[in-house]
């Protein structure tokens, strides 16, 4: 069975085209390697070619195994058909550790290069952590210049095709853009109808930085999200009139904003449902209704790292 053909977009400073929708791999509750690998292979059968992982998710190894298996069974002919994003964890956000951390992720993924390497969040942790929240003593401000130079080295060494950031505010974007020799290609941030990120998107657009939307379904059923998107009455009314689901309306809305999307489903039906967003459109009236939805940030650094002063300051940055 052939999968859905997903549109791609080209990013400045990244040689490989990015499929506009990618499969997230952060699961809640966490799943074992075999379950994640099977879900990723199923996603490839459905047509997904863009996968979003991170050292911190523990999903680099199952993704690597799934890619190796997909090549073995002929589901894909070449690794080049895939767009793989992974992220520098904050415990390695120290200039000397960036290239080694990238190499470690590549080893987990059994790959020679990734397509996109992102700074996971604008903070440094002085220790490796096994659970969150973390102690205030191990949180430090990010050495933006030193860390970005390390990211540039990863690209110059050919370990990644493109480099970018995640969870960066306009203020943090200014900092990195002011020192970058290679500007970030991507800023991956939370974005959905209930957290539309208008200001950040305008800022990034003006500077040629592409935005990728994570948690586009509000991270339904996870410990870092809630069901306010999939159970939104406004989205449900739009969905009903179009014969779609609320999830499809949320994903279509993000797609129409010109961003790329990473959304996670390890369920065979829902991962396919989430790809059925390319042959219909929202009306002006639908877009106006979505525009008026009350805004609330779902994912904060404080909810992950703890309500420490530096973390609260970062969350408050626009
Ligand atoms: N850079 C960062 O700091 C950061 C932060 C958060 C997330 N991310 C990335 O973005 C990816 C996506 O974000 P996310 O996982 O937080 O949230 P999400 O994609 O908004 O939501 C995922 C949740 O929604 C459920 N779901 C999926 N499709 C659905 C549908 N059609 N109807 C109803 N429920 C549905 C999934 O369950 P099932 O699997 O059971 O379908 C899962 O529990 C992550 O996996 C990760 O790769 C990055």
TrEMBL record:
Protein's UniProt keywords contain Ligase: no
Q: State the Pfam families in the record.
A: Aldo_ket_red
Under the heading SUPFAM superfamilies, the entry gives: NAD(P)-linked oxidoreductase
Residue positions annotated to bind substrate are 120
Annotated site (Lowers pKa of active site Tyr), which positions? 87
| Keyword rRNA-binding included in the entry's annotation | no
UniProt-listed InterPro entries: AKR, AKR4A/B, Aldo/ket_reductase_CS, NAD(P)_OxRdtase_dom_sf, NADP_OxRdtase_dom
Which residue range or ranges hold the NADP-dependent oxidoreductase domain?
Answer: 21-294
Q: Which residues does UniProt mark as catalytic?
A: 57 (proton donor)
GO biological process terms, alphabetically, are: secondary metabolite biosynthetic process
Q: Which residues cross the membrane?
A: none
Q: A Gene Ontology molecular-function term?
A: oxidoreductase activity, acting on the CH-OH group of donors, NAD or NADP as acceptor
Alphabetic keyword roster? Oxidoreductase
Gene3D superfamilies, alphabetically? NADP-dependent oxidoreductase domain
Q: What is this protein called?
A: D-galacturonate reductase-like
């Amino acid at each position: 069975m052939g999968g859905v053909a997903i549109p791609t977009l080209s990013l400045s400073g990244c040689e490989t085209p990015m499929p506009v929708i990618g499969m997230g791999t952060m699961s809640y509750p966490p799943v074992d390697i075999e379950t994640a690998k099977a879900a990723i292979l199923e996603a490839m059968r459905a047509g997904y070619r863009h996968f979003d992982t991170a050292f911190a998710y523990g999903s680099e190894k199952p993704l690597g195994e799934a890619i190796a298996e997909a090549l073995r069974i002929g589901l894909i002919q070449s690794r080049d058909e895939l767009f793989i994003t992974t992220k520098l964890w904050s415990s390695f956000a120290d200039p000397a550790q960036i290239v080694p951390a990238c190499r470690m992720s590549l080893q987990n993924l059994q790959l020679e290069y990734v397509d996109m390497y992102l700074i996971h969040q604008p903070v440094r942790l002085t220790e490796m952590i096994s659970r969150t929240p973390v102690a205030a003593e191990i949180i430090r401000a990010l050495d933006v210049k030193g860390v970005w130079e390390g990211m540039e080295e990863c690209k110059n060494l050919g370990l990644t095709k493109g480099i970018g950031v995640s969870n960066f505010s306009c203020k943090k974007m200014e900092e990195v853009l002011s020192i970058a020799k290679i500007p970030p290609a991507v800023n991956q941030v939370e974005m959905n109808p209930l957290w539309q990120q208008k200001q950040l998107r305008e800022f990034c657009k003006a500077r040629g930085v592409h935005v990728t939307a994570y948690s586009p379904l509000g991270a339904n059923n996870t410990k870092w999200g809630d069901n306010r998107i999939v159970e939104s009455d406004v989205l449900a009314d739009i969905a009903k009139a179009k014969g779609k689901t609320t999830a499809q309306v949320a994903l279509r809305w993000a797609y129409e904003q010109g961003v790329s999307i990473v959304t996670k489903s390890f369920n065979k039906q829902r991962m396919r449902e989430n790809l059925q967003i390319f042959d219909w459109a929202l009306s002006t009236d639908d877009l106006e209704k979505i525009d008026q939805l009350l805004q609330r940030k779902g994912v904060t650094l404080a909810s992950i790292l703890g309500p420490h002063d530096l973390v609260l300051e970062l969350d408050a940055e626009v």
